[in-house]
Structures are given as structure tokens and as C-alpha cells.
Specification:
Shape: globular
Number of strands: 0
Distance between the termini: 42 Å
Number of helices: 15
Order of helices and strands: HHHHHHHHHHHHHHH
Structural class: mainly alpha
Strand content: under 5%
CATH superfamily: ABC transporter involved in vitamin B12 uptake, BtuC
Number of domains: 1
CATH topology: ABC transporter involved in vitamin B12 uptake, BtuC
CATH architecture: Orthogonal Bundle
Helix content: over 70%
Length: 287
Amino acid sequence: MTLFLEPFTSGFMLNALIGGVLCAGICAVVGTWVVIRGMAFLGEAMAHGMLPGVAIATMAGIPVVLGAAGSAIVMSLGVSLLSRRGKLSHDTGIGLFFVGMLAAGVIIISHSRSFATDATAILFGDILAIDAPELLMLAWALPVTLLVAVLFHRSFVALVFDARVAQVMGLRPRLAQVLLVGLVTLAVVSSYQAVGALLVLGLLLGPAVAASAWTNRIPATMELAAVFGAVSVLAGLLISWYFGTAAGASIALTAIASAAFSSLARSATRPLRPTDSTTQKAVRAHA
């Protein structure tokens, strides 16, 4: 037991654990919808698209979360405009902005020779440096995420069925889609400090995929994903402490490993049912 408790007698490790668990809660809720809606590419693009804003904020000496949020908003609006007014598919719009924002970030970083350490923290995270203001931001982001997920649950479920059906039912599918993108943005921006822009997708997807092996109900998947995510944070921090590995990468890899081990364990306990479609999952969630 001492092996588990001793690392967290240090203040920075305790902050990292608290911050990581808060991130896991946010990513559990958002990641469940990301998996159901097939929005993984959007999540990855958002994670990379934050780079120019974070770089500018770092060099300007302003809070990096403001720069990250600014880049994410620009990318969200740009993708929406390209998809609605142009002849491009949604994925193509995401791909264009993803590459463009990433390239802009690299160009900005290349003009600052002293930026190497900060760039590493942006890309791979620095959860051990989480302080009180960042914990406060995560503590604010989690209830906001939960509130939106609860208030618009029916709209999100209807959107999974068919946007036209949702429109007929008066559930405003366009607003639901915007809110889902907003939740992805909030999760990425608030979590990048913990696991970095390149690894945040692991915390979004891994626990949600691990949880979906055991339940088809959306609320239950979110709850179980939060557990898997919290355990991944704990295990990743312990691995980092005792083996000297990068904390953010250890957490992300543990989260991905949880998905693989969960699927194997589920297969070993009893045969899996035929894979449910997204609509069938939504039906069970709304039943």
C-alpha cells in the first residue's frame, strides 16, 4: 500500500492526480460522444490546431489557455464555414484546417529559438506542473461539461439517429452538433496541460472504448469511462514516478492499453454480442 501512497505525499504529485482525475471525468463524458459520433478525427485536429494559439500566448506572456481556446474557436468556425458554404465534406474541411493550423504553429515556433522546452510541454504535456489556477479551471470545466451533456442528452441522441428526424422533433440538430464540437473543444483545451496536444486523444478515446466493451447504455458508458480514465491517471503517474517515464505519455499509453485489456477481458468472460450499430446504442441509451 505504501508503494501507492508514498508518491502522492509530494504536493506536485497530488496536484497531478487531482488534475488528471478531473481531466478523466471531462474526457469520459466527451469521449463517449466522440466514439459514438465518429468524431475522433475532429478531436485530433483540435488537439493539433491549438498549437499556433498556444505558441503566440506563450511568447506574449498571456495565459496559454486563452491562446488554445482562441485557436480552437477559429478552427471550429472555419470548419463549419467550409462545410456549410463550400462544396467540401466535413472531414475535408477538418483536414485542411488541421494541416494549416499545425503548419502555422510550427512556423511561429521556428522563429523562437528559446521555445523548445515550451513546445515539448505543449506537445507531450506537463501534468506534474499543474498548479492551483489550472486545477480551478478543470474544476469549472467538469460541471459545465456535465451540465451541457445532461441538458442536451435527448438532442445528442436524436442527432445520432438522423438529423432530419431530430429537426422534425424540434430538437435542433444543428445546435446539438455545435454543442458537441464545443464540448470536444472544451475537453481538448482543458486537458492539454495534463497530457499534451498530441496525446489528449488517448484520454478521450481509450477509456470510452474500454467502457463500451461492458455496456451499451450511454450514461453507464460515461460513468465507467470516468473510472477507467481515473485508474489510467493513477497508474500512469505511478509508472512515471517509479520508472522515470514522461507522465503525460504514461497516462495516455495506459488509457489506450485499458481499451485493449478491457476488450480482451470482455472476450474472455463471455462471447461478445454482434457489434451494435450507433443507432442501436442510442436506442438503449434512450430506452
